[in-house]
């Protein structure tokens, strides 16, 4: 495999970024971060890539490639089709934070070959394969402009900021075997919202709203509130107050399709 043309301290930072991403990456395999390579060199896997730029303490781009099994599990979730970008975003954030406080853009889904080839054309690009004992199951790739200082002490300090230190692993399905689609989604963060009720209004009525106006909803007082995940009804409950914050006490779990 072709070695990236960046320094040893920078490779250490890249590896720590991969390990930080791996700690929050949804997967049903036991994975470890492999040796850094040039993006596209032994890192092309069947699946989907999510790429995002970041800026702040460091400026660069990060790409996470996941296997087709995870992409399929998200698309066929019991809760409906889930957003791959949202599922992978914690891994993108964890990797970019290794370089200091940064702001990550929303990101976009791309074909792995397109994303890694575009990154490989940039100076200082590096990819870390995330593999089990058999195959590469995911990839973390980075490009920074410029990379942090070559000072070994600075690199060591940044490396110490990696989440927990050491090699992060996810243990679920036996090595080399594909786990269940639902198991793969257990650590995916999702948007949960509570809804008291709905109504329909004309544009004229919306423009006439003022502070103090009352909007009547389509639900009687005391009726349970709806709990939704990505817009899909999953439960109902009563509104409660927990430490001065509103909460929902679940009273009913809605069966799939019942909504």
Automatic annotation (TrEMBL):
<keyword id="KW-0145">Chemotaxis</keyword>
<dbReference type="InterPro" id="IPR001543">
    <property type="entry name" value="FliN-like_C"/>
</dbReference>
<keyword id="KW-0472">Membrane</keyword>
<keyword id="KW-0283">Flagellar rotation</keyword>
<dbReference type="GO" id="GO:0003774">
    <property type="term" value="F:cytoskeletal motor activity"/>
</dbReference>
<comment type="similarity">
    <text>Belongs to the FliN/MopA/SpaO family.</text>
</comment>
<dbReference type="Pfam" id="PF01052">
    <property type="entry name" value="FliMN_C"/>
</dbReference>
<dbReference type="InterPro" id="IPR051469">
    <property type="entry name" value="FliN/MopA/SpaO"/>
</dbReference>
<keyword id="KW-0282">Flagellum</keyword>
<keyword id="KW-0966">Cell projection</keyword>
<keyword id="KW-0969">Cilium</keyword>
<dbReference type="GO" id="GO:0009425">
    <property type="term" value="C:bacterial-type flagellum basal body"/>
</dbReference>
<dbReference type="InterPro" id="IPR001172">
    <property type="entry name" value="FliN_T3SS_HrcQb"/>
</dbReference>
<dbReference type="GO" id="GO:0006935">
    <property type="term" value="P:chemotaxis"/>
</dbReference>
<feature type="domain" description="Flagellar motor switch protein FliN-like C-terminal">
    <location>
        <begin position="184"/>
        <end position="254"/>
    </location>
</feature>
<dbReference type="InterPro" id="IPR012826">
    <property type="entry name" value="FliN"/>
</dbReference>
<dbReference type="GO" id="GO:0005886">
    <property type="term" value="C:plasma membrane"/>
</dbReference>
<keyword id="KW-1003">Cell membrane</keyword>
<dbReference type="GO" id="GO:0071973">
    <property type="term" value="P:bacterial-type flagellum-dependent cell motility"/>
</dbReference>
<dbReference type="InterPro" id="IPR036429">
    <property type="entry name" value="SpoA-like_sf"/>
</dbReference>
<protein>
    <submittedName>
        <fullName>Flagellar motor switch protein FliN/FliY</fullName>
    </submittedName>
</protein>
